[in-house]
Specification:
The complex is a heterotrimer.
Chain A lengths: L1 H10 L12 H25 L1 H8 L4 H26 L3 H31 L8 H30 L10 H31 L4
Helix pairs in contact in A: 2-3, 2-6, 2-7, 4-5, 4-7, 5-6, 6-7
Chain B lengths: L9 H21 L13 H10 L1 H30 L7 H29 L6 H17 L1 H16 L10 H13 L19 H31 L1
Chain C lengths: L8 H22 L2 H23 L7 H23 L2
Helix pairs in contact in C: 1-2, 2-3
Classes of the chains: A mainly alpha, B mainly alpha, C mainly alpha.
């Protein structure tokens, strides 16, 4: 993969280059595969105990699930905007977009804490039943990814500070914004699956 | 580099990593009934009976596993030597990679001694006590994940900072190591479960967690040995 | 850069948000449960495809990666559909 990225840089052929640092895609794909295993576990569990899963699902707050989805999608839009601005050398604009990405994205954390504490106060925990085990573990691990993503965004913003300076490594900045963006979009798309799988699969 | 780097024992030490995995798999895993482990749901009598019937196999397995545990540290120190060639000598990352390997050795030695204790005089111990030793060893070996994570992330971040046109260790492998270190965090929920994917014998907390780590060792060894050749040429 | 194929970010966002809203409304009783659930899974797949193409900007990039991610999406979608319909 590394070699391909290098060849691409030399030949200037955008079609074979990966956005961002090529190695980060290994992390992203490995992570997505781990989540694919999570989804398979959930599917197998649902097949075995459909009534339990439906009864538990109906206790979830669909409105909050939708709100979380919209928060991440909106934050992701600004991330995509930041990458486009960085590509056209508008580093100041990219920096502002990254800040908006972080500000909107942070709301996901607030809403998640709210949602979990509501569940816990109703006596629903990690060990209540299999559905809620998966609910807490999958959304918990996803939340961990989210927290790391927020950290990555903060680092990207800090690194883009010298955007107006002459000697700035623009190619390096773009590479890191694209890599961080790929990660942030992964957090987003994993939530899209979690939202559909946990909240929306109502049984007849 | 002005002075030539002495790489004499590096290859030998690096080979200790895959050797450790092979020995540990057989002695701790197969002889010790840990690959896969007893289900946490298994009755105490089942675990105790197995230890009584197989005491000599477990004793042999744990003695060899304990003797081989330092090989992990030897391997980790050799990797840190390779990492020194990427950035600053004795940087914080090199030190963390070393200490992570050393700590991991300790977290392999202590639980193996618990399994050995269970096999030492199993007739004198009540069933529940053998089960407790078995549980204790598993809780320790799993929940000590974080010390290995220190090694995994230090090596990963260190190798990523390679400024060479073709890095000594490929970036994908550095990222893979970081991911493994990150995935280990799943072990945190293992104490809550007695069956299913998150139990100590579950698909996630046993099969995936152990295999991604056991694959990382020989793959990184292969690339590190290749890197030595380049270090010598430089 | 192939500017002609670059969708405005707001348009992508609007489609994604709209699809999320539809999935939610269907699950809230706008459609029979089985239809709603099936559509929710399909809408999720469409949304993820859009994220790949227009947020991650993979549509004019590295083919093997695109194919890998497409395969992931097919597997995940099939898993969810099986999990629902085999229950």
């Amino acid at each position: 993969m590394q070699d391909m990225a290098q060849t691409a840089q030399i030949s200037g052929d955008r079609n074979s280059a990966l956005p961002g640092d090529s190695g980060v895609w290994v992390f992203i794909i490995a992570d997505m595969c781990a989540f694919a295993v999570f989804f398979a576990l959930f599917a197998a569990g649902r097949i075995a105990q459909p009534e339990l899963y439906e009864a538990s699902r109906s206790q979830l707050d669909l409105g909050l699930g939708l709100a979380n989805t919209l928060i991440l999608l909106t934050s992701g839009a600004f991330m995509a905007r930041a990458a486009r601005q960085a590509r056209t050398d508008d580093l100041a604009g990219a920096r502002f977009s990254l800040m908006v990405t972080l500000a909107i994205g942070s709301l996901f954390g607030v809403s998640k804490v709210f949602e979990w504490s509501a569940k816990l106060s109703h006596g629903i925990t990690l060990t209540t039943n299999e559905f809620f085990t998966y609910y807490f573990v999958f959304t918990g691990i996803h939340f961990l990814h989210f927290v790391i993503g927020i950290g990555v965004l903060a680092v990207l913003i800090a690194r883009s500070k010298g955007g107006a300076d002459k000697g700035i490594d623009r190619a390096g900045q773009l590479r890191w914004i694209e890599a961080g963006g790929a990660y942030w979009h992964m957090v987003d798309l994993l939530w899209i699956v979690l939202f559909a799988m946990l909240y929306l699969l109502s049984a007849a | 580099m002005t002075t030539k780097i002495d790489t004499r024992y590096w290859r030998f030490c690096l080979w200790m990593g895959p050797l450790f995995v092979a020995i540990f798999y057989y002695c701790w895993g197969v002889l010790g009934h840990n690959f896969p482990p007893f289900s946490p749901d298994a009755p105490a009598s089942e675990v105790a009976t197995w230890f009584r019937d197989n005491r000599n196999g477990v004793r042999f397995g744990m003695v060899v596993a304990m003797s081989a545990a330092p090989l992990y540290g030897v391997w980790g120190y050799a990797l840190a030597k390779v990492l020194e060639q990427v950035g600053e000598k004795d940087s914080i990352l090199v030190q963390l990679a070393r200490v992570g390997a050393a700590w991991t050795t300790i977290t392999l030695l202590i639980p193996t001694s618990f399994w050995l204790t269970a096999a030492y005089r199993p007739d004198a111990l009540p069933d529940w006590m053998i089960q407790m030793l078995y549980d204790m060893a598993w809780l320790l070996i799993d929940l000590a994940y974080a010390v290995t994570t220190v090694q995994l992330i230090a090596l990963g971040v260190g190798f990523l900072s390679d400024k060479r046109a073709i890095p000594l260790i490929p970036k994908w492998l550095a990222w893979y190591g970081i991911w493994v270190g990150f995935m280990f965090i799943l072990e945190c929920i293992m104490p809550y479960f007695f069956n299913g994917a998150f139990a100590r014998n579950g698909i996630l907390n046993f099969w995936i967690e152990f295999i991604i780590w056991m694959v990382w060792v020989p793959v990184l060894t292969y690339y590190a040995i290749k890197a030595i050749k380049r270090i010598e040429a430089e | 850069m192939s500017g002609a194929r670059e969708w405005p970010v707001w348009l992508v966002w609007a489609i994604l948000a709209g699809a999320s809203g539809i999935g939610f409304a269907l699950a809230e009783g706008l459609a029979p449960a089985k239809v709603a659930a099936t559509l929710a899974i399909i809408l999720a797949a469409v949304k993820i495809h859009l994220v790949f193409d227009h947020y991650m900007e993979l549509r004019w990039q590295h083919r093997p990666l695109r194919q890998l991610l497409a395969a992931w999406l097919v597997v995940v979608t099939a898993t969810l559909l099986t999990g629902y319909w085999a229950a």
